[in-house]
Specification:
Structural class: alpha/beta
Largest sheet: 5 strands, parallel
CATH topology of the domain at 63-125 and 223-485: TIM Barrel
Helix content: 40-55%
CATH class of the domain at 63-125 and 223-485: Alpha Beta
Bound molecules: zinc ion
Number of strands: 12
Number of helices: 19
Strand content: 5-15%
CATH architecture of the domain at 63-125 and 223-485: Alpha-Beta Barrel
Shape: globular
């Protein structure tokens, strides 16, 4: 009986299937039926689609800007640098340091006022040659090129610094082809360990390092640097105050020559301490220190210290939600600070730290590469205008996107999610300022002037500090931008 029932069901299902498929065959239209009836109509529809899918900037370019946009198009098409966005960026800076710098397109980008660099880490701020020169002036400095951490600086181990081979030293401190068989993050973290102790030899060296680092940013035509920067204690009980004062002093030194340049400090905690409790305790101390320094060390706007962050290799350290209790505790104590969290710098499909960063109230997101995993969150981030700090060269060299043409941030940009271009760790990548990152994406994404202008404006609109400071920052930037446009037209006319 059972079999009979089954077979009846089977037969009816089969009949139904036949009917449905017959119906489909009768009713179906060919997929090409909607195709335009002529090649001309096809081309016109394609143009309309292209227009709709182009990035839409917030504004129209002026007549003068359009002239400069045409110049930019010429520079892109005439570039002699055989730049390939699918090759690691060190291929273009380690072999011939003048290759990119001599490209008129790079010079255009360098001269362009780029707004704010919103994401750089203090130990990687100064370009590696300048850092080398600074080290060569430190008495009794030694370097160990063959130890466990190649290029480790100290006052006790290795050979005198000035006796070491310069090329070998620079190789040890930067990522290059010789590191391609190792895990990028291991090389990278060793490089931080190699140079990290030099900052604490002497307050004057500390001040000099930051003066030169800030100066390099100003000379790269940036109005603002917001830097992740630790301020450890010079003496016990100092609570980072001397370091903070030296940072402020270094910044004021640069302001003498670049009065519209400013610096803000974000104090980072570390997500990779030995135990969860120790790591949480360290973040608690970071928040307390930031609050103390915010009160004690003030710039002209009383806002030198703008917040805290949590850093380390995201797929290896503790997840962000480890620190939720500490943030809640700080909030309950009435502490007043912003968070600027690293998140989404991950290759792991189950990483959900972008969600944590959003829920923890982040002002901006450091990286945010894997936002594509969370389309609903992406919508919230767009709506609440939480900018992503995109660092193209870093993302490529640390293994998150090997071909910059396919960097997901290009899609986020087109979808109206605010992104700003930043440099992360220029020293280890053998670049300086943020011009190289702009160069890489101007070429990889074939950006026009409207798109570039939007990126510059984003970097300013999502800067930290007060609303009135941001307004001033934007008006200062506009003055520079107008001058830049005029100078570019003048240059073109005189050729
Ligand atoms: Zn970073």
């Amino acid at each position: 009986m059972m079999n009979m029932k089954l077979s009846k069901k089977l037969i009816s299902a089969m009949l139904l299937g036949i009917c449905i498929s017959n119906f489909s065959i009768v009713d179906a239209k060919s997929s090409t039926d909607k195709m335009p009836s002529s090649v001309e109509k096809y081309e016109s529809q394609k143009q309309k689609l292209l227009e709709k899918n182009r990035f839409a900037a917030d504004y129209q370019l002026s007549e003068d800007e359009l002239k400069v946009d045409r110049k930019l198009a010429r520079l892109k098409s005439m570039s002699d640098v055989n730049y390939r966005p699918d090759l690691p960026f060190y291929e273009f800076v380690n072999v011939d340091e003048n290759l990119i710098e001599s490209d008129p397109l790079f010079q255009f980008i360098k001269a362009m006022p780029k707004g704010s660099n919103l994401h750089t880490h203090s130990s990687a701020l100064l370009s590696i040659e300048k850092f080398y020169d600074l080290c060569s002036r430190i008495p009794n400095l030694r370097i160990d090129l063959d130890g466990k951490i190649p290029g480790k600086l100290s006052t006790s181990e290795g050979i005198p610094f000035n006796e070491a081979d310069r090329t070998k030293v620079l190789k040890a401190w930067t990522i290059g082809i010789e590191d391609s068989d190792k895990r990028a993050w291991d090389v990278f973290e060793d490089q931080f360990r190699a140079i990290g102790d030099v900052f604490w030899i002497d307050p004057q060296i500390y001040r000099e390092y930051y003066y030169l680092g800030f100066l390099e940013q100003a000379q790269d035509n940036l109005n603002r640097l917001e830097i992740r920067c630790s301020t450890p204690d010079w003496e016990s009980g100092d609570r980072g105050k001397l370091a903070a004062q030296l940072l402020l002093d270094a910044y004021r030194g640069v302001q003498k020559d670049y009065p519209d340049f400013s610096v803000k400090i974000i104090v980072p905690g570390h997500k990779g301490k030995s135990t969860i409790e120790k790591s949480q305790q360290q973040f608690r101390e970071v928040i307390e220190k930031e609050q103390y320094l915010q009160r004690e060390v003030k710039d002209e706007s009383n806002d030198f210290f703008i917040g805290v962050d949590l850093v380390t290799e995201e797929d290896a350290g503790y997840p962000l939600d480890t620190y939720v209790p500490i943030l809640i505790e700080a909030k309950n104590k009435g502490f007043d600070f912003d968070v600027y969290l690293h998140a989404g710098e991950s290759n792991s499909p189950d990483n959900s730290m972008m969600l944590d960063a959003y829920l923890m109230g982040t002002k901006r997101i450091g990286h945010g590469i894997d936002l594509f995993r969370y389309p609903e969150l992406a919508e919230k981030i767009r709506k609440h205008k939480i900018a992503l700090e995109i660092c193209p060269i870093s993302n490529q060299l640390l293994g998150y996107t090997s071909d910059l043409r396919n960097h997901p941030a290009y899609l986020y940009f087109k979808e109206g999610i605010p992104i700003a271009i930043a440099s992360d760790d220029p020293a280890m990548f053998n670049v300086k300022g943020v011009s190289y990152d702009f160069y890489s994406i101007v070429r990889a994404w074939d950006l026009n002037l409207a798109e570039i202008k939007q990126l510059c404006l984003n970097s300013i609109r999502y800067s930290g500090g007060s609303k009135s400071e941001r307004k001033k920052l934007e008006s200062d930037w506009r003055i520079r931008w107008d001058k830049f446009i005029k100078s570019q037209i003048h240059e073109s006319d005189s050729k």
